[in-house]
Amino acid sequence: TGAFTIAIDGPAAAGKGTISRAVAERLGLPHLDTGLLYRAVGARVIGGQDPVAAARTLDASELNEAALRTGPVAEAASRVAVMAEVRDALTEFQRAFARRPGGAVLDGRDIGTVICPEAEVKLYVTASPECRAERRFLELRARGAEVTEEGVLADVRARDQRDSARAVAPLKPAEDAVRIDTTALGIDEAIEAAMAAIASRW
Ligand code: C5P
User: The whole model's pTM is what?
Assistant: First the structure.
């Protein structure tokens, strides 16, 4: 098929989102931030719904909400993300997106390992926990959230732990993933590193 799938995985606040959006824009490909699916389910669970029912009835129109970008929703997302039935209910939507003619960029935790194991390019984007917490702290504070650096670091560590330790689709690099550590990279350098890795496989 003509689909060229780029799978970008990694822990929270490593720079996946920024890199994915930039790469998709440069290549003219559609981009799916798969964390939004789990966040949308998490938001519905905070609203009192059953997680599996929420995942099965999720609608793409729910993914654009700014309300999904909060700490409590991220926390709820990582709690529902351990449930196999929730993940199963979200799989086909992601695979259909990946099969779009011409290709697509998907970012998440298990894109290269579970959702799109045949992806033409797999990137695993990381950074130290301290660096990721600092970036997330600045981002949340810029949006007016009342957070502390220590609190954000604790949240990042808790989410890393839950995402890596779960039995179903744990966070880990695919064997054939190109690793990009953004700890010491600026945004432009991280994007260039990603573009270079993609170009080598295109
Ligand atoms: O990437 P983001 O921080 O928006 O993801 C929120 C949560 O959703 C993650 O902490 C993770 O538990 C879950 N997730 C997942 N698989 C994905 C994307 C996100 O388990 N592909």
Answer: 0.95
